[in-house]
Design a protein that fits this description.
By secondary structure, the chain is mostly beta strands. Helices cover 5% and strands 29% of the residues. The protein folds into two domains: 100 residues, Tumour Suppressor Smad4 (Sandwich); 70 residues, Wheat Germ Agglutinin (Isolectin 2), domain 1 (2-Layer Sandwich), CATH 3.30.60. The protein is elongated. The structure holds zinc ion.
Length: 214
C-alpha cells in the first residue's frame, strides 16, 4: 500500500505505508506527510489487516477539517480507503494525494506454509528460501532466480491477473498539467495557504490603562 503525493517539482512520488500510523496535512499548498503533533495535520492513515487477511487502510480526519474523498465529504470523519481513491486535504490541485492498494513486487526468500506452493508460470514447487516474487495484485507466487526468472519471463504479464510483471509500481496518478502564468497568479490569489491564513486584526491590542479611581 502506498500514497502518492507531489514533490517540489510537482511530480507524484510514492510513500509506502507500513504498519504504523502516518499523518498528512497541507504544507506550502501541497499535501505532505507531517508529524501528528503538528498544527497542520488534518488526517491520519492507519493500515490494518481485515478478516480475510487483506491489508487495508483507515483514513481518520481531524474534527472540523474539510477533507474530501473523490470529491465527497467524509461522513463521521472515518473511511476505509479503496484503491486509487483521491483525497483532498484543502483547496487547490496540489493539496490532494492518492491512495493505492498496490505494493511494490519484491524478490524475497520464500517461506513454506503447511501446503505446497507451486510457481504460477513454471509449475515447479517453491521450496523454503527460494528467491520468489508474489504478485501484489492477485497473490500468485513465482520463482525468480537467475536460472529461472519465472516472474519477469520475457516481459509476460501475471498469469492470474494480467498485471505487468515489472518490479516497479504498475499505476501512478496522471501527471498534473503545467500551470500557466495566469493560473499560477489565480492560485496564489485564492488558494495559497499564505492568503488563507486568518487575518490578524490591525487594531492595537495595547491595553488602555484603567482610569485612576480614587
Ligand atoms: Zn497477478
Amino acid at each position: 500500500m502506498v500514497i502518492w503525493i507531489l514533490d517540489q517539482s510537482r511530480h507524484w512520488k510514492p510513500v509506502g505505508l507500513k504498519d504504523g500510523l502516518i499523518s498528512v496535512g497541507v504544507s506550502d499548498g501541497r499535501a505532505a506527510v507531517v508529524s501528528p503533533d503538528e498544527g497542520n495535520a488534518v488526517a491520519s492513515l492507519i493500515p490494518y489487516q481485515d478478516l480475510n487477511g487483506r491489508r487495508r487502510c483507515f483514513l481518520i480526519c481531524r474534527r472540523g477539517s474539510h477533507v474530501r474523498c473523490k470529491g465527497l465529504p467524509i461522513l463521521a470523519g472515518v473511511r476505509v480507503l479503496s484503491d486509487k481513491d483521491e483525497i483532498a486535504l484543502g483547496n487547490g490541485p496540489e493539496a490532494r494525494f492518492y491512495y493505492s492498494q498496490e505494493s511494490k513486487p519484491q524478490i524475497v526468500p520464500f517461506e513454506e506454509g503447511p501446503r505446497p506452493t507451486y510457481c504460477a508460470r513454471s509449475k515447479a514447487r517453491i521450496t523454503q528460501g527460494t528467491p520468489a516474487v508474489q504478485c501484489p495484485s492477485c497473490g500468485l507466487w513465482y520463482i525468480e532466480t537467475d536460472e529461472m526468472p519465472a516472474y519477469t519471463y520475457c516481459g509476460e504479464p501475471c498469469v492470474g491477473c494480467g498485471r505487468p510483471t515489472t518490479t516497479d509500481y504498475s499505476w501512478a496518478p496522471d501527471p498534473l498539467p503545467a500551470l500557466r502564468p495566469e493560473g499560477q497568479r489565480l492560485w496564489e490569489k485564492w488558494c495559497s495557504p499564505r492568503t488563507m491564513k486568518p487575518q490578524v486584526s490591525k487594531r492595537s491590542s495595547k491595553v488602555t490603562p484603567a482610569a485612576d479611581s480614587r
